[in-house]
Amino acid sequence: MSTVSRVWTAVAAVLVLFVAGCGPTYPNCKKDKHCHEGEYCVNNRCQQCRDNGDCPEGQECAAGACREIPGYCRDSADCAEGQICRNRRCGPCMTNSDCPSGQVCMDGLCGEAECHSTEDCPAGLSCINYRCRSDQTSSSMLGPGDCVLEPMYFAFDSAEVSSEMRRVMQNNYECLVKRGGRVTLEGHCDPRGTTEYNMALGERRARMVQKLLTAAGLDRGQLRVISKGKEEATGTNEAGWARDRRVEFK
Fold first, then answer.
1. Among 97, 110, 157, 224, which has the minimal tally of Cβ within 10 Å of its Cβ?
2. Between 10 and 230, residue with greater pLDDT
3. How far apart, in whole angstroms, are the C-alpha atoms of residue 247 and residue 204?
4. Are 104 and 128 contacting, i.e. CB atoms less than 8 angstroms apart?
5. pLDDT for 11-58, tens place per residue?
6. Cβ-contact 247, 232 below 8 angstroms
7. How far apart are CA 150 and CA 132, in angstroms?
8. Is residue 134 very low, low, confident or very high in pLDDT (cuts 50, 70, 90)?
9. Confidence of residue 198 (pLDDT cuts 50, 70, 90)
10. Residue 2: per-residue pLDDT
11. Maximum CA extent, the chain
12. Mean pLDDT of 99-117
């Protein structure tokens, strides 16, 4: 081997060792050690967390970063008045059993019942969902089967129907079978996010309820779907936003 060949062989060997000793350029990575302290290598990219277990209490891993959990709670004492803590998130009550002793679940909030029957109300008012309401309001809510259609509530940024809300949906289904006729499923959202996004989310919520009621046996032609998006949202905090996220039966 010539002197020139030996020199180039030596240079090539040095280059191989140099390249082998260098890791990927941050934030690219192959191992956790290529990332900054406290970061993890996920899919060859450095990020703050792999899953919720890498985040402090009260935060969740979203798109590789730890973020505050909306409405996070340890128990119902951390929530706004009337709300309950379920799965570490503040939200509306679903049934009376969610509420403290002596309270009932009214439109998603725990509180003292105004009435338990129409006899408890002044003349001209009827007891609807534990509140005394005018006969005009009552008659618009009740059908021939004398039953009440309850709103269905949703988690933040979700169109999935929870197990608690499936029980509400079953009661509404039975009510609709008794009443017959058509009903409008009106999707609503809380005020956060763009108008366009919330219009789409409201429609997804209403269509999900339509899909489940149709699967249960109702004729699709009975169920009209519309979205109000955030148009009628009134909430200014988590308690109010939880009531905004709903599908109403009208």
1. 97
2. 230
3. 10
4. no
5. 555 554 444 456 689 999 999 999 999 899 999 999 999 998 899 988
6. no
7. 16
8. low
9. very high
10. 58
11. 114
12. 86
Which tokens go with 46?
Answer: 């450095």
For the record, the structure tokens of 14 come out as: 């040095």
SS (H, E, C) the chain: CCHHHHHHHHHHHHHHHHHHCCCCCCCECCCHHHCCCCCEEECCEEECCCCHHHCCCCEEEECCEEEECCCECCCHHHCCCCCEEECCEEECCCCHHHCCCCCEEECCEEECCCCCCHHHCCCCEEEECCEEEEHHHHHHHCCCCCCCCCCEECCCCCCCCCHHHHHHHHHHHHHHHHHCCCEEEEEECCCCCCHHHHHHHHHHHHHHHHHHHHHHCCCHHHEEEEEEECCCCCCCCHHHHHHHCEEEEC
- 66 forms beta bridges with 61
Domain with CATH 3.30.1330.60 in the chain: 143-250
Whether residue 136 is predicted with pLDDT greater than 80 in this model: the reply is no
Q: How large is the average pLDDT for residues 177-188?
A: 90
Residue 145 has φ and ψ, to the nearest 5°, of -80, 0
Burial of residue 141, with CB atoms counted within 10 A of its CB: 0-12 exposed, 13-18 middle, 19 or more buried: middle
